[in-house]
Amino acid sequence: MDQTKRKWWVLAIVSLAVFMAMLDITIVNVALPDIQNDFSSDFSNLQWVLNAYTLVYAATLLPVSKLGDIIGRKKVFLLGLGVFVIGSLASGLANSDTWLNIFRGFQGIGGAAMMALSLTIVTTSFPEKQRGLALGIWSSAVGLAISGGPLIGGALVDSLGWRFIFLVNIPVGIVAILLGMFVIKESETNKNGKIDILGLIFSTAMIFTMIFALIQKQMNVDYAWTDWHILSLFGLSFVLLLAFIITERKVKQPMIELSIFRNWSFNGANIAAFVLGAGLYGGFTYLIILMQNYMGYSAFETGVKMLLITGFTIVLGPIAGIISGKVGNRWLISGALFISAIGILVLRYMIEAPFEWGYLMPGFILLGISNALVNPPISNAAMSSVDKEHVGMASGIINVFRQVGISFGVVMLGIKLTEGYNESLNTSIKNLTNIPTEFGNQMLDVFHKAGAFAGSQIFDSKQAETFKAMPAFNEMKKLVFNAFNSGMQDVTLMIGIFLLIGTFASAILIKNKKNTQNGN
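-> structure tokens emitted (520 positions)
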């Protein structure tokens, strides 16, 4: 196979792998009710079906990137694909929620290897003139997986059952492995390279404890940030960060060459990746809750609606990669993030209860354009701002920032939603004069325990049966929908702030390529 054809086959294989790795972060959401019914598990165990994958995935991104530089990126990438396939098979055959959580964590190791190494393989397989287009296609796979998860997951769950959201990875993964063995060229390896054991332990433990602290806050909304469960984990993460920095300064072959953080463009790309994850991708979670639990759409219907965002990614992603080489990563990133901020503020202005699809469409269009335009130049800015020997680690770092951003965003936005929801309920129910105080307090307790995510489900529950005949029942339902709207107002404002921070940070920090060398 000649070099021209080979590089496009390489791009197809790694894009497929990345699609699977990112899809498994979002696809499980729609299968949780079916998994809960099969295993009769409680909500806290159920959340670990999501969190086990995310936690291990984020914690192993840096180690697998370094391992690829030492023993070969092709080997680690294909090994990651193999681990992912085995983890998918085991998850699909799991006979309890405990084993499913364990297999999901194992699957996360493979996902991390695929994600971290794929970006480096694409970057080194294409000449500079075509790299923007290639990264655009790669980024389209990422965006499609994140926003298309509900659609694909809903279709599989409805037609074949929840186990097939994992089992479908097996034939796809095997084909990718076989093709990758023949098509992907092995990278140059550092034969004298050694794994920085202390750096590996400190970096992995640092990311693990940071993400785990956020997960603890997400799973226990009654915990204050100063609660020892949260504070101790953040404190440990900070200590591990200091230990990691000290270690990397002293060892001869560090896990991360800290000098790459002197490059302002690299830092700007990482900030953009973080706020994109925290704002846009973290916000997807609550837009999906709005559509499913308050607008009454099924998982599949929700996925179809999300195609309004995904569709732009498929069309504009590759074009954005080409444009970034002409207008520069700096302005394309900051401009795309600004469009996203406008889109989310349009949503904030238009959304009101009772919710209708027409309220979401204008904002979704702007979010779709932004999502399509922003990912390729972020990847391009990060990879082009470091020396060739550091591209593997740069890939791991940019993915860590994106994933930590998603986890941070989901937690912070969830807290904001719950606070706004509860405050609105407290005020609204206390102001009602046509119901007994005792009844109002009972309903308030029911709504608080159900939480902002319950939506219409709480009014169909057994708890609400005794209240349905009450004259104020419909009025209570209206108050709950208004309370969720109040929470979403706070959520969309916070997302807008995240995205505007990214807009200005990328415009200030990211420079043209000719100015990025040596930290200038």
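The CA atoms of residues 96 and 209 lie 26 Å apart.
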